[in-house]
Amino acid sequence: MKKQLLAGTAIAAASVLIAGGAVAADKKMMKPSISVNGYFTAHLSGVVDDDINSAQVLNPPAVDLRSDSEIHFNGSAKLDNGLSIKVRTELEGNSHTSAGKPSPANGNDQIDEVYVTVSGSFGSVIIGATDNAAVKMLTKMTGAWATNVGQNFHFNSQEWVNSAVGTGGGRFHVLHDARIREHGGGGDSEKVSYLSPKFSGFQLGVSYTPYADQDFHVNHDVDASRHDGMTGAIAYSGKFGAVGVSIGAGVNVMQGAAGDEDLNEWVVAGSLDFGGGFRVAAAHQGTTSGVGGGGIDLEGSVTEAGVRYTQGANAFSLVGSYGEFANTDDMYSAAKAAYRRTLGPGVFLDANLFVNRSENAAGAENSGTAVSTGITVVF
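Above: the chain sequence. Below: its structure as tokens.
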């Protein structure tokens, strides 16, 4: 039944495009265009305190420097039948190599997302290596993601301060993310998604992910990784008086690899926009994952919240989260205060204060504080 449904969807999509081609034969259309944008960011950090336990492998310097950049190539075309087609390829700017191996800082991935979007009055169909429908619809209202300024709270908090053995790295990072992203595989694995138009503020989205791992242009072995993932999301955005309200929920399920249990994860999120530049947002996510099969052993939950205030060129935020693993009793908490100043169109200066604390099942603890400052250019 699933194969018949997917085949029918493919035929329907092809029929729409073919119909557009018939119109193009009678009318001269504009040639597809391309644009380039992206970002560059560089930050200097000082570790004020880092209580490294004796088993901790890492021993980072007291002062460190990090940079990150991407270049985005965007193609677009408009058909006479009203369809809009956009393609996007994201090139990692920090793909340095050492002994012929990609830098782990960019996830061993020179190309990040690459996908095509076909949009019309029916909504949007997205095909390629990119995030699922829940991530695309809910991130803008999810806790720290909706209120963060300066360095990214999720991606950068563990860069500066170590976590206790067993609680950091990939295992807590995917939980701490507070978004449903095919954990145990890759958030940018190949998939097809559908986002509906908005009806009275409501929007629906679904995704199908054949295989969790990224960048595999070969026949897949379903016993080697999670597979046949289905994602669903619903969101609402509107206004009640002067207050903007956004709320949504999403679920993701994937069949486990050999020796794994099936993956089940869900998230609820919401934000409120008040007059005068105030925004508050919160989210709660739960995830389950079996042991074995090469997947990440993950079963737990994370709750996060944040507040942001913007006034002219200045922006302030305070965000925090707490997560724990039900199967190991590992825990991790983090908070960040940040200030951002807009220096000009697309140019930002920021300062950040990170505070992290973690504890693993063996009782090893680690806590630390770090400050960072840097510049970001978005072009």
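The longest strand covers residues 33-50.
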